[in-house]
Design goal:
It is a single chain. This protein has one domain: Umud Fragment, subunit A (Ribbon), CATH 2.10.109.10. It is built from three helices and twelve strands, in the order αβββββββαββαβββ. It holds the Pfam family Peptidase_S26.
């Protein structure tokens, strides 16, 4: 009887440790997310399942997941970091006055025939607009520029609202890939 009780206790401990480790990994290190919507097309598709890395600090052009003002999590690309000026002119991104290439937009830019993919704007024209991205905040945009609700509509994002960055699609299996 004692041997059976001891074996049951060992299995229970192993199960509790496994559950505890899974909770720590999910809460502090990595979490799954499902892409909901078309705002990151063509880079990400509706229904893509991804891994969110909660370690590290967002860098320019990272794809991040954050808590949006609508009590929903959004997935967007970091364009402007604290202290940056950001503007679009003639479908070209300018950060701190320098033009930046956005190769992830090439597919859409080639398909557009009725004007620019990204309408002209400056940071001062967005909600709560300022000349530069405020300290502790990020300017984010979806890759599907014509159909993305992003910093152009909701303003800059406080860094503490960022859950993490993501670049691994693990589902559907035929679409497993790293995204940039």
């Amino acid at each position: 009887m004692t041997k059976e009780k001891n074996e049951l206790w060992e299995w229970t401990k192993a199960l509790l440790i496994a559950i505890g480790l899974a909770a720590v990994i999910r809460y502090f290190l990595f979490a799954p997310i499902v892409v909901d919507g078309l705002s990151m097309m063509p880079t990400l598709h509706n229904g893509d399942r991804m891994i969110v890395n909660k370690l590290g600090k967002p860098e320019r052009f990272d794809i991040i997941v954050f808590h949006a003002p609508e009590q929903k999590d959004y997935i967007k690309r970091v364009i402007g970091l604290p202290g940056d000026t950001v503007e679009y002119r003639d479908d070209i991104l300018y950060i701190n006055g320098e033009p930046y290439a956005e190769p992830y937009l090439n597919t859409y830019k080639e398909q557009i025939t009725d004007g620019p993919l990204t309408a002209d704007f400056t940071l001062e024209e967005i909600p709560n607009g300022q000349k530069t991205v405020p300290e502790g905040e990020l300017f984010v945009m979806g890759d599907n520029r014509r159909f993305s609700k992003d910093s152009r509509q909701i303003g800059t994002i406080p860094i503490e609202k960022v859950i993490g960055d993501t670049n691994v699609v693990y589902w559907p299996l035929k679409d497993i890939r790293l995204v940039k």
